[in-house]
Amino acid sequence: MGEVIKVGTEVEDYTFKTQYDKEIKLSDFRGKKVLLSFHPLAWTGICANQMSALEENYDKLKELNTVPLGLSIDSIYTKKAWGDHLGIEKLLMPADFWPHGDFAQKMGIFRDEDGFSERANIILDEEGKVIFTKVYEIGNLPDLNEVLDFLKDN
């Protein structure tokens, strides 16, 4: 893993495919904050809880002018099947599948030895600059209240 992207860094525009096989760009969300919530792998327990928490708090995040994105290195097909299984309806879950983990590498959170990203939350402001980064122990569920509190104060 490289060094985690620093607060204040402007993130280059990036194009992803969501679980619905639709292209989205980070620049589509200019004027809103973006919560990049990275999880290592679909179909694992803590990752499921992490994505379900984003889905359950989607409207709260929207009220705070924030778009959550649930990112992992899984393919769009895996993410679609898993999202359907979890009952995800609002949350977009982009695939950082190919080039493999490219966006996670740009964020400095790709685990080369494992082939997937760290569990991390990175928040971009309305202009696409990093305003918050936190990497969690792989086995720990990120505290979404911490993120909500940060967003309320910023």
TrEMBL record:
Keywords: Antioxidant, Oxidoreductase, Peroxidase, Redox-active center
Gene3D superfamilies for the chain: Glutaredoxin
GO MF terms held by the record: peroxidase activity
Active-site positions on this chain: 47 (cysteine sulfenic acid (-soh) intermediate)
SUPFAM superfamilies: Thioredoxin-like
Residue ranges of every copy of the Thioredoxin domain listed in the record: 5-154
Designated name of the protein: Peroxiredoxin
Naturally occurring in which organism (per UniProt): Orenia metallireducens
